[in-house]
Amino acid sequence: MTALPIIRHTGSEIGLHGRAAILDLTGAMYLPEDGVLLVADLHFEKGSSFAVRGMMLPPYDTRETLKALTRAVARFNPRAVIALGDSFHDIGGPERLGDEERATLARVQHGRDWIWVTGNHDHTLPDSIGGEVVEEMMLGPFTLRHEPRGGADAEIAGHLHPVGKVVMRGRATRRRCFVTDGARCIMPALGAYAGGLNVCDTAFQPVFPNGFTAHLIGTERIFAIARAMLCGD
Amino acid sequence: MPKAAAIALLPPEFRRWFKSRGWEPREHQLQLLAKARGGHSVLLVAPTGAGKTLAGFLPSLVELAGPSPSPLRGGAGVAKSERKDKSARDVISTAISSENGSPGRSTPNPALPARGRERRRTLHTLYISPLKALATDIARNLETPVREMDLPVRIETRTGDTPSHKRARQIEKPPDILLTTPEQLALLLAHREAGELFKDLRRVVLDELHSLVTSKRGDLLSLDLARLFKIAPYLTSVGLSATVREPDDLRRYLVPQRAGEGGERALADLVVVQGGAEPDIRMLELDEPLPLAGHTASQSMPAIYDLIRRHKTTLVFVNTRLQAEYTFQELWKLNDDGLAIALHHGSLDVSQRRRVEEAMTAGKLKAVVCTATLDLGIDWGDVDLVVNVGAPKGASRIMQRIGRSNHRMDEPSQAYLVPGNRFEILECRAALDAVHEAAQDTPDARIGALDVLCQHILGMACAEPFRLEDLYKEIRSAAPYAALMWEDFEAAVAFVATGGYALRAYERFAKIVKGKDGLWRVRDARIAQQYRLNVGTIVEATMIKVRLGRTSRARPGTVLPRGRSLGEIEEYFAETLTPGDTFLFAGEVLRFEGIVEDEVLVTRATAGTDPKIPSYEGGKFPLSTFLAARVRAILADPFEWDRLPAQMTEWLLQQRRRSVLPGPNDLLVETFPRAGRFYMTCFPFEGRLAHQTLGMLLTRRLERARLKPLGFVANDYGLAVWGGGDIAARVGREPGFLDDLYAEDMLGDDLEDWLAESTMMKRTFRQCAVIAGLIERRFPGQQKTGRQVTISTDLVYDVLRKHEPDHVLLRAARADAATGLLDVKRLGMLLQRIRGRIIHKPLDRVSPLSVSVMLEIGRERVYSDDADEILAEAEAALLDEALA
């Protein structure tokens, strides 16, 4: 085994449609020119959603997700936060939100704009959770929506929960990732219980007909992995 | 009891039947009859071929045949004259009298329902076997005496394959004897009719008990047994077992324990059949030297082939599926005589396995290459030779395998041990000594697992409402749970109800609820249905089907999934394959094409392709502590070397010249530089699982000591760690360095830190989560619903660990890790043993012993759970590509 070259990143900054975008270890993305923090697929209250069906998952997923969200907000202190859909795992999610979690959410929202883009899990959202609710929106050149459509738009979306898998000499690791072709980006799911879909799945093909790079979230930094190095499940 | 009196217990028609077969009832068969008459539970320990099964069923057949021929009945006569200690019967009476508060139990013992030709049909005997196939096999064997004596006995099996109308009828109109598996029994006991179905049950026969009790299935069965004893006042148990180290463990298992009372344990009676002729077992010795590593035993194949040719039927046991594939392949390369040599392992397609089994029973096969799936007691007819390829791993294991040849007790079994490398020669030698002394190394009795307890509690709630105190008492009457603390029981109940979290978020979704009457009951029928789907303790590694593909005519280069299914491989194995990889499976070299819709698509590799086996799972079973100690003793004592093949002596002498041979309790640590890196090897002989854990922890500690570890490999005997820092130089500066490095405190924080990341630990947690019912079991063939909708237990593990590190499920997982995939318990014993006994030998090049471990590099997987390291490597590959 040869010693590996240490690659210095300029943070985890990438270019997206000619603009700077900072990829955060939490899975959030910060657009410094707009002062906007983007997050996707928070899936709050997924645990309690399973409990309704008799699977008593540890009821701490919303807290964990909020913790990550709080960290990202503290790091960038954004003017606005935009959540790209499926922020709640189901329609009843906002209702089940615990008092403590509700308070934490209000604290993070305080002093900045907050926009909920709706998703397939949370196509309607009550006023009680604060912020503004939209179906999709424009931010500079980008269309922000839950489900990526591909085509000519420069879009930033979520929905697919991308994960990349790398196998090196029999050792495999599977991590959440940002997927981008330089013009558009699909963000990883931030929710503590949000699983992932392998980027080699055909679902990603129409969005990136000309290929992509996956930015895998490691333990201490983010790694840019070429399509050819990624394996299916 | 004098033999004549014993024979008198046998009704005339049975005596006639034995005679017509030219048999005489064996002593232990009559003993069991007497025990049954006296109302005793009993453990029968007997070698293969002793007529164990018939002995187990004889009392039931006699009772079912009609009124007893002598006045002996109930707890009278026999018990008094024969036993001084407290009989199992007494124990049962105690259990019954303690039930006096509950409805329907306060009445004095009613007269036993009449048995015989005009009786009411109730279930009389339950037979539990670890294998579905074994239950079916036994049912077939039982039919013979029943038919030949024209006994009014109905025998049925109940397995996962039994159609639903038959299942329903079995509850309405039960047979006299029902043969089933532990999982099916759990399902029956969770049925609302369970009390009615089992109340007149007289006997439960537990076959292959030695193998059942070593696993979580044994835990589950013990709980079910406790419930049976509670339901059926006249129940006695019969355990059938191969020879074990501690028969008392099994005797306790068979009868209800009196919980709480200072250490006094109830024991079933014991009947032991001494082994017949001593087995004729030897090591296969070759003229050419064996390699220093590897398990394939490739040099020995011609000799094994020759043995097969010279015997009637041979069983060739190997330790792993891959080894089975390899051995089968090699034997066929030599098979100029076209001998009927077949392959059998658990991953093959069921229909293919059945074909092999049928051919075997029909005596059409010359040899079968098989794994542990054939370890258990199915009767394979006339096997006259057992060959064990690779390391024996345990003395008892090897004896049970050898017992598969010559099913007649008075003839010696023939067997060969075939070592694959030089260390395995030592292991074979140690095993031969153990067999010669009839020494056993079966594992210790288990402490009942908490995840199994959770599953059982839900099942009991499905059967009928329960009071917490009553269920606790019942559960503690099961031997593995005799020491269960009330707090743990409560935690398990809380888990079943709402997950048992400190944050009480799920009260309104509770699965079991306590009513105003103080009884706990299941919330609704849907939860009961969920229980039924998730019952059982076997959580296989998720398997994925292997399908043969055809090259598309229309589009050359495209492979279509049009061929037949070959069997299943573990998902994690499939995940490490990349298209173009070749591997051995189902006796062929296959080329991996990709995963298409939940199936591994393969094509046949072109003839002559050497399979690349990326994941060689070494010994599936770790070397037993007992054999390990013997191996160390042989190594340490030059007088012992005389009994080893000459090539070994030469090798050991070289090791002594170039380095040192450690004493039986020492740990030899060698350090040496090689090709720009620094290596450290050590030889604990504690099995690969414990070594893997040790390797993980050592690399963490070396990292912290800034010695830049890069990787390690482990096998059953030792491990090698390498890196960029010079460990020997460090030891030179800091003489206590190695003692600190190998100090027991690595099982504290270092272990905890590693467990957070460990894939092995996550796999262990997943199994506990499925067994306990936290998440639903995925069934083979069930459509994967996409990862967004299902839940990954890895994520649950992360969250739970952060918030409730002492949650009952994490405790269950840690208990498993102690003995299972991580073998922490054994590592702890090792670290304790070597305290102050580390012998460091700084060398300038690799020693003869170390070569054997070094050879595993490239053959064994290099372990690392460090995701960043893997990712950095992949990223660098992108860079290389860009620069090229």
Q: What structural keywords apply?
A:
heterodimer, A: 233 residues, alpha/beta, seven-stranded mixed β-sheet, 4 helices, 30% strand, disordered N terminus, B: 884 residues, Rossmann fold, 41% helix, globular, DNA repair (chain B), DEAD/DEAH_box_helicase_dom (chain B)
Brief sketch in words of this structure:
The complex is a heterodimer of chains A (233) and B (884). By secondary structure, chain A is α/β, with parallel strands linked by helices.
Structural features, described:
The complex is a heterodimer of chains A (233) and B (884). Chain A has one domain. Chain A has 4 helices and 16 strands. Chain A has helices spanning 46-52, 61-76, 93-96, 99-109, and strands at 13-16, 19-23, 29-31, 36-39, 80-83, 113-117, 132-134, 137-139, 142-145, 154-157, 162-168, 171-180, 185-186, 197-198, 213-217, 222-226. In chain A, the strands form 2 sheets. In chain A, strands 8, 9, 10, 11, 12, 13, 14, 15 and 16 form a 9-stranded mixed sheet that branches. Chain A is globular and about 45 Å long. Chain A starts with 12 loop residues before the first strand and ends in a 7-residue tail after the last strand. Mean pLDDT of chain A is 90; it is low at 1-11. Chain B is built from 35 helices and 27 strands. In chain B, strand 3, helix 8 (164-172) and strand 4 (177-180) form a beta-alpha-beta unit. In chain B, 41% of the residues lie in helices and 14% in strands. Mean pLDDT of chain B is 82; it is low at 69-118, 613-619 and 780-789. The longest helix of chain B has 17 residues, at 132-148. Classes of the chains: A alpha/beta (233), B alpha/beta (884). At the A-B interface, helix 1, helix 2, strand 11, strand 12 and strand 16 of A face helix 22, helix 31 and helix 35 of B. Chain B: GO terms for molecular function: ATP binding; ATP hydrolysis activity; DNA binding; helicase activity; ligase activity. Chain B: Belongs to the Lhr helicase family. Lhr-Core subfamily.
